[in-house]
């Protein structure tokens, strides 16, 4: 396959290109679900990297700033985003939803700009790049040679993504295109590769990926097998609630599956040691204080919640710290046939990459799943607290059967991590889904007042 010519990164060219794209992107970016800066205007926009991936498709890394406010160490504050932009004279009606705008000046004047991931032709050409290892400017395309990827698989863009964009190819493979880019190897590539090396079959192994070397090395996307007949745990839990069915058997099996993944993670990333509960409690308290500053409804419960973190500093240290999932909930697990699979090891995209890759207590993942059962139970009226309680018990029982320790016997640890998760949920819902705020607030009241 011939190499795709890259665009020379001349400063003048970058300036000219942003003359065409700058205002269009300022208007378009805040409307995207994966854009983290919805609560503020795009005050600064700069081009970090640009490559002509193939004719009519530009690959961009852009920096969005916060009006000159410095970040850590004096570096510019803001985020880096990956964009794949299609450029045409005229856009077909079927791509209307992909429209970004019409360039009126600069080198692209008179042309139509759109999100190329919506374009089947561009999506197929992107797959071809992934099928053939090689380079395009600073971009590097790499494959697992043991897994062949057929040509000509029809693409479709998933509409349910929140923080990234995903393309399904022929119901055989799924490509996750990371939108918010941080330097380093993304955990959603690093962890599944490591787990595959341990023989863990609970996580689909990457078959191809691409990355950039400029302006810093970073993972841009990962291609994995697509579990075509799978349903996510959230949908299955809601189905069970709607039909009045019990979910404890599935929850017990899910607990065993998660224990299997944790054991494989501990083997793949050895030597992590025990968590420093004092430092963890201090970090949790700091997050609580910040959330209470932003969400007034949280403030009356702060003393009770602080007691959960205070107890963490003196309680049993629990299982050794290790690599964990980092953002575990029912939407991050899939059931295909009788088997559970775990996906999306990216962690919380809003947190720094280095933090997401640190060793943590596996109790953090368990607490995330327990909160998810509570979220599911509250989707129907009347609320069914017994359904959530049985699922929580079953999940912990399944986990204990394989892990060799029982989360239910680590009461202080579990309460602290569940409290920390609920505080995160309060802040998220207040910012993005205010109608959902009563769900985590009910847990906050329980954890603070009753100390459960």
Describe this structure in words.
The structure is a single chain. With 452 residues, the protein is of the alpha+beta class. It has two domains: 11-225, no CATH class; 231-450, Aminoglycoside 3'-phosphotransferase, Chain: A, domain 2. The chain has helices at residues 11-28, 120-131, 187-197, 233-243, 248-268, 277-294, 302-312, 353-356, 363-377, 385-403, 411-432, 438-450; strands at 44-54, 57-70, 76-88, 99-102, 112-115, 134-136, 139-143, 155-157, 164-169, 173-178, 180-181, 208-212, 218-225, 231-232, 333-336, 339-342. The protein has a seven-stranded antiparallel sheet with strand order 6-7-12-13-10-9-8, with helices on one face.
Q: What's the average pLDDT?
A: 90
The assigned CATH architecture of the largest domain is Alpha-Beta Complex
Which regions have little confidence, pLDDT < 50, spanning 5+ residues?
A: 1-12, 68-76
Largest pleated sheet: 7 strands, antiparallel
In the CATH scheme, the class of the largest domain would be Alpha Beta
Shape: globular
Q: How widely separated are the two ends?
A: 61 Å
- Radius of gyration, CA atoms, in whole angstroms: 23 Å
DSSP summary, beta strand count: 16
Which strand order do you get reading across the main beta sheet?
A: 6-7-12-13-10-9-8
Instruction: Report the total helices.
Output: 12
Question: Under CATH, the topology of the largest domain is which?
Answer: Aminoglycoside 3'-phosphotransferase, Chain: A, domain 2
The chain-level structural class is: alpha+beta
- The SSE order reads HEEEEEHEEEEEEHEEEHHHHEEHHHHH
Percentage of residues assigned to helices = 25-40%
Question: What multimeric state do the chains show?
Answer: single chain
Tell me the strand percentage band: 15-25%
> Into how many domains do the coordinates divide?
2
CATH homologous superfamily assignment of the largest domain: Aminoglycoside phosphotransferase (APH), C-terminal lobe
């Amino acid at each position: 396959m011939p190499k795709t010519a890259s665009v020379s990164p001349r400063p003048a060219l970058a300036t000219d290109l942003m003359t065409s794209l700058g205002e269009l992107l300022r208007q378009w970016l805040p409307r995207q679900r994966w854009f983290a800066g919805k609560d503020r205007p795009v005050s600064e926009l700069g081009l970090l990297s640009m490559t002509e991936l193939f004719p009519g498709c530009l690959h961009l890394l852009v920096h969005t700033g916060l009006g000159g406010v410095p970040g850590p160490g004096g570096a510019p504050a803001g985020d880096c985003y990956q964009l794949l932009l299609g450029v045409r004279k005229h856009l077909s009606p079927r791509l209307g939803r992909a429209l970004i705008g019409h360039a009126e000046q600069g080198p692209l004047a008179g042309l139509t700009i759109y999100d190329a991931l919506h374009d089947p032709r561009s999506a197929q050409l992107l797959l071809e790049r992934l099928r053939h290892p090689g380079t395009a400017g600073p971009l590097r395309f790499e494959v697992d040679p043991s897994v062949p990827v057929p040509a000509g698989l029809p693409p479709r863009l998933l509409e349910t993504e929140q923080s990234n964009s995903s393309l399904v190819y022929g119901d055989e493979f799924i490509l996750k295109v990371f939108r918010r880019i941080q330097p380093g190897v993304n955990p959603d590539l690093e962890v599944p590769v490591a787990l595959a090396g341990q023989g863990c079959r609970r996580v689909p192994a990457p078959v191809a990926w691409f990355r950039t070397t400029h302006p810093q090395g970073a993972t841009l996307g990962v291609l994995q097998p697509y579990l075509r007949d799978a349903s996510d745990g959230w949908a299955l839990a809601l189905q069970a609630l709607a039909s009045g069915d019990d979910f404890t058997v599935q929850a017990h099996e899910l607990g065993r599956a998660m224990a299997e993944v944790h054991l494989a993670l501990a083997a793949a990333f050895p030597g992590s040691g025990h968590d420093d509960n004092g430092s963890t409690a201090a970090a949790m308290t700091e997050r609580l204080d910040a959330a209470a500053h932003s969400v007034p409804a949280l403030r009356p419960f702060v003393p009770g919640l602080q007691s959960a973190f205070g107890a963490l500093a003196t309680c049993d240290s629990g299982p050794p710290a290790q690599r964990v999932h980092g953002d575990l909930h029912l939407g991050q697990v899939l059931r295909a046939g009788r088997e559970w699979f775990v996906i999306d090891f990216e962690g919380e995209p809003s947190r720094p990459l280095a933090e997401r890759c640190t060793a943590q207590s596996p109790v953090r993942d368990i607490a995330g799943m327990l909160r998810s059962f509570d979220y599911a139970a509250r989707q129907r009226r009347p609320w069914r607290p017994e359904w959530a309680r049985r699922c929580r018990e079953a999940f912990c029982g399944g986990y204990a059967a394989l892990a060799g320790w029982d989360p239910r016997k680590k009461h202080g640890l579990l309460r602290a991590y569940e409290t920390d998760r609920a505080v995160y949920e309060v802040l998220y819902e207040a910012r993005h889904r205010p109608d959902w705020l009563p769900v985590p607030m009910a847990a906050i009241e329980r954890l603070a007042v009753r100390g459960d």
